[in-house]
Amino acid sequence: MRFFQNNEQLLIPEPLTDKQDHPQLKPISHFEQLPSVFPNTTYTFSTELEQILYGKQLFLENLPLPIEQLHQHYVNGYLSYRKGIENQMCIRCGNENPSLFAKFSCSRCKHECTYCRKCISMGRVSECTPLISWTGPKPQDSIPLKPLVWNGTLSVGQQKASEALVDTVKHNDQILIWAVCGAGKTEILFEGIEAALLENKRVCIATPRTDVVIELAPRIKSAFPQIEVIALYGGSEDHGSTAPLTIATTHQLLRFYRAFDMIIIDEVDAFPYSAEPMLQYAVDQAKKDTSSTIYLTATPNNKWKQEIAAGKRKAVTIPARYHRHPLPVPTFAWCGNWEKKVKKQKLPQNVLQWIKDHLKSHKQAFLFVPRIDYIKIVVSILQKLDHRIEGVYSEDPRRKDKVSAFRRGEIPILVTTTILERGVTVPKIDVAVLGAEDTIFTESALVQISGRVGRSSDYPTGSIIFFHYGKTKEMIQAKKHIEGMNKEASEKGLLEV
């Protein structure tokens, strides 16, 4: 869209200008400075727009009100027009890579218009795209005196982390919670979230993967039944909503702007967040200038470990699971040139026997493979043993249905890529990795995969086996990592056995 700047330096959208103003119309990015307008406290603003737009950065076409009404909110200081692209940078996603910009002949601004290719999946941001944000008051949330209704009991390690988190919220600080897989990280968050809500703060739990959002949402809603909770991911029904408590994939944070007083980054080490500056930019843009940030991980990177050891990063470590049983330690099993066998529609004998044993004992299991290419072949081999065996991968259109069926016990063995290394909890399972020597299986990935086993207090044990064609440093480090956590937990008296 093009704008005209009047004598008060206010922007007037093209549809609201007279014909004689047309020579001065230009894309929003072509204006050197954009004015700030103080709210007119006598103006009656739209509460519908407030609910949709608060803490967001959206396009005009995302908003249900006519442009005349939107513009009245602008001139009265209740919304702002911001540049989508400025100084060769996408303001929404932070992209500054020249190769990730392109030009097109734009019918809206009558120019060869530059747009950002980096975040195109969230809608096109171009030189003439205004980002619309709310500058009026914060919506009034109805928060009960006791929003948390969870009646569980925290372990000693969980309680220590919970108290540190509450303190972090009260002081608008940052903290890393380094907790082993299955330590009960969700429950650790409850008291901190409650503390934030009671201070009328807005909270976001951001996680890299859709599966985690889907699993986490009902647990959070159950713990805070009187609080409105929205879950945002590709295809969710809550887009366009705002609430005191938001659970979202990190990609969805690109839609937010100065929205949250408390932001929790779950699995901070996980792909794509750990490897994508755009998502880290999105987090920084989504939280308020004064806010608290909580990082959660079972596998911090080496830099963060060094900062913790040096006292440069505030952190709490939980080396034991809430049920006080040790972490299952992986075993290694050589299986020969498994890739060669798979290409011939066969599996190594010890892998095949592992599958048969689990089918016979009726114990569910995950079988992780390095790449999507192997899913179809391995599943076709295994379905000769049991037609219920399935495979799943990131772009599988039936991914959610298959994971749900596995949870219900309808799928005995689920063959998967690393897409399910995190966030999916099934009480009584074993896990195997085929081709554990592959470069995709880093120390972090193998620790997370191992963490799928023994998570339930009813079934705190289980087996994890790495089938390989040669041990790697990553495999050895993953085993040492797990053994190290068990040792620390034992020394701190956090284990029953």
From TrEMBL:
GO terms assigned for molecular function: 3'-5' DNA helicase activity; ATP binding; DNA binding; hydrolase activity
Start and end residues of each Helicase ATP-binding domain: 166-318
Alphabetical list of CDD domains matching this protein: DEXDc_ComFA
PROSITE patterns recorded: HELICASE_ATP_BIND_1, HELICASE_CTER
UniProt entry keywords in alphabetical sequence: ATP-binding, DNA-binding, Helicase, Hydrolase, Nucleotide-binding
GO biological process: DNA recombination; DNA replication initiation; double-strand break repair
Entry-linked InterPro entries: Helicase/UvrB_N, Helicase_ATP-bd, Helicase_C-like, P-loop_NTPase
Ranges where the Helicase C-terminal domain occurs: 350-497
PANTHER family: COMF OPERON PROTEIN 1, PRIMOSOMAL PROTEIN N
Protein name: DEAD/DEAH box helicase
Origin species: Fredinandcohnia quinoae
High-level lineage: Bacteria, Bacillati, Bacillota, Bacilli, Bacillales
